[in-house]
Design brief:
Elements (H helix, E strand, L loop, with lengths): L6 H19 L1 E3 H8 L3 H13 L3 E8 L2 E8 L5 E7 L3 E8 L4 E8 L6 H19 L6 E8 L24 H9 L3 E5 H12 L8 E6 L3 E7 L2 E3 L30 H4 L1 H4 L4 H4 L5 H9 L3 H25 L3 E5 L7 H14 L2 H6 L1 E4 L6 H13 L2 H6 L11
Parallel strand pairs: 4-7, 7-8, 9-12, 12-13
Antiparallel strand pairs: 1-3, 2-3, 4-5, 5-6, 9-10, 10-11
Helix pairs in contact: 2-3, 6-14, 10-11, 11-12
């Protein structure tokens, strides 16, 4: 039996520290492991050798700063994770390994008016097909990350009010999908997963404090504070779309007037262009026309940027993030939307906070949320699972 403070318990703790560092980063050199864990180079070398001999990690030659080094990543046999992203009009699924490599990925249209049961049927089928396509047995699936476009109640796990998927309100996505797939499911809203995806793979790499702003059918923010997603006690942190910009403005779906969402969400801004561009205009097409020089679309994109900038300025004054990452279709407008955001931040934010802030487009595009779902599983899984070899136990088959 290990006792606290004993040599064996200290060794176990060091093993877990190294595995956690590698798991969260995907791959690290031994020098990087030493810096991130605070362990000595000699201790890291011995632990890596032990983990390699046990089949937990793989070590490959690489270079760092022009010098030879050894890159450490979790073994390809250690397991796989699945990400599922439900959106307004799509379902996207990705399968990845513990070295942060995406092995299979596919998206398909999803009828927003479909029932929750139909949506989960589609997800179950697509997950099963993609896992099979990797050639890795389903018993290697460690867990599933699930993203939904609405607030998740932290205590009950149920989906709260959502104008995006109205037929899903009150459902428990985690229990539903876990019951179908027979593996643990971790669920979060799409903005939080977008933030996590950009933090691990995209424009947020190397940053500990950022806000990911997603503008689509609604407006939300995923907040990262000291490297961790901040959800708040009820799971509703980041509802930037309901910051009041104009008390006499349009009535929002939340019941208030003049929320940021009423000036920026797709269903509002496309209506401004309907008379000149027709009823079938999409945000993607509007952005394309703006980039091609269409004056009406350029004006709307710029106005949306200024409104978003007002909301970002509030975030700056409250949380002082070092970076804001803009996601969703609107991010494809580049400087046409980013420059107005920066102008509003410079005007309304505290000068010291505005000077420290960089506003950039997301690097992952429509993949941010599904990659964030993969990262969610990688963050939530326990290191003892890898060290104890319990992945060898077969999981229930997908049916």
């Amino acid at each position: 039996m290990e006792t606290p403070g004993s040599q064996s318990s200290l060794h176990r703790a060091n093993l877990e520290r190294v595995v956690r560092a590698v798991r969260l980063a995907g791959s690290l050199t031994q020098a990087e492991i030493a810096r991130s864990t605070g362990l000595s180079a000699a201790t890291v070398s011995n632990i890596v050798r032990e983990l390699k001999d046990g089949g937990t990690v793989e070590v490959t030659p690489t270079s760092a700063g022009g010098r030879r080094a050894r890159s450490v990543s979790l073994s390809g046999d250690a397991g796989i994770v699945v990400g599922v992203d439900f959106g307004h009009t799509h379902l996207r699924v990705a399968v990845g390994n513990l070295a942060h490599q995406v092995l299979a990925e596919e998206a398909e249209p999803l009828d927003v008016d479909a029932s929750a049961a139909q949506g989960f049927d589609r997800a179950e089928s697509l997950v099963s097909r993609l896992v099979a396509a990797t050639g890795i047995g389903q018993e290697k699936v460690i867990g599933v990350g699930l993203g939904v476009p609405g607030p998740i109640d932290v205590e009950s796990g149920t989906l709260g009010s959502s104008a995006i998927l109205p037929g899903w309100v009150g459902t428990n996505p985690r229990e539903e999908l876990a019951g179908r797939l027979g593996v643990p499911v971790h669920v979060d809203n799409d903005a939080n997963l977008g933030a996590l995806g950009e933090l691990v793979w995209g424009s947020g790499r190397g940053v500990k404090d950022l806000a990911y702003i997603k503008v689509a059918s609604g407006v939300g923010a995923g907040l990262v504070i000291n490297g961790q997603i901040y959800r708040g006690p009820g799971g509703t942190a980041g509802e930037i779309g309901h910051i009041t910009l104009d008390e006499s403005g349009p009535v929002c779906r939340c019941g208030n007037r003049g929320c940021l969402e009423t000036f920026t969400a797709a269903r509002y801004i496309l209506g401004l262009l309907q008379s000149s561009h027709g009823p079938d205009l999409t945000v993607e097409r509007m952005v394309q026309l703006a980039r091609e020089g269409d004056p009406g679309c350029r004006r709307v994109v710029a106005d949306v940027g200024r409104h978003i900038g007002s909301g970002v300025a509030n975030l700056c004054n409250l949380l002082n993030p070092s970076r804001v990452v803009l996601g969703g279709d609107l991010a494809e407008a580049g400087e046409l939307v980013l420059a107005p955001i920066r102008e509003s931040v410079a005007r309304y934010a505290i000068p010291s906070a505005a000077r420290q802030l960089s506003v950039v487009p997301g690097a992952l595009g429509s993949r941010a949320e599904v990659l964030g779902a993969l990262a969610l599983v990688l963050n939530e899984m326990g290191d003892s699972t890898l060290l104890d070899g319990s992945l060898a136990a077969p999981a229930p088959a997908f049916t």
